[in-house]
Amino acid sequence: MILSTKSGMILPTKYVPVPRALISVSAAVLECLTKPMTVSQLWEETGQRYEGLLFERFILATDLLYIMGAVEMNNGLIEKKKS
Questions:
Q1: Per-residue pLDDT for 2 more than 80?
Q2: Quick check: helix, strand or coil at residue 34?
Q3: Is 16 helix (H, G, I), strand (E, B) or coil?
């Protein structure tokens, strides 16, 4: 199982604090996804709530959510996957 990426770890470690771990960033992105949004809308919403978030980490977190099956893309909009 791959638990690291080029720019950081998915899970927190001794060297990667909880706020920077991709799993934490993914939770923040998911929290902001209250309705179907474009990537730009979701980025703006997430960036307003979580200052200092880099676009690279936002995209990695969004990718992680997609891979985990938590979000899906429909007609150009990202939305939470319905169970």
A1: no
A2: coil
A3: coil
| 74, two tokens | 């429909």
**Nearest-angstrom CA–CA distance, 46 and 30:** 9
What is the DSSP code (8-state) at residue 72?
E
The pTM score is 0.84
Any alpha helices (H) in the chain, and if so which ranges?
Answer: 22-32, 39-49, 55-68
**pLDDT confidence of residue 3:** 47
Contacts of 39 (CB under 8 A, 6+ apart): 62, 78
pLDDT over 60 (residue 7): no
Q: Which helix (H) or strand (E) holds 78?
A: strand 77-80
User: Coil, helix or strand for 12?
Assistant: coil
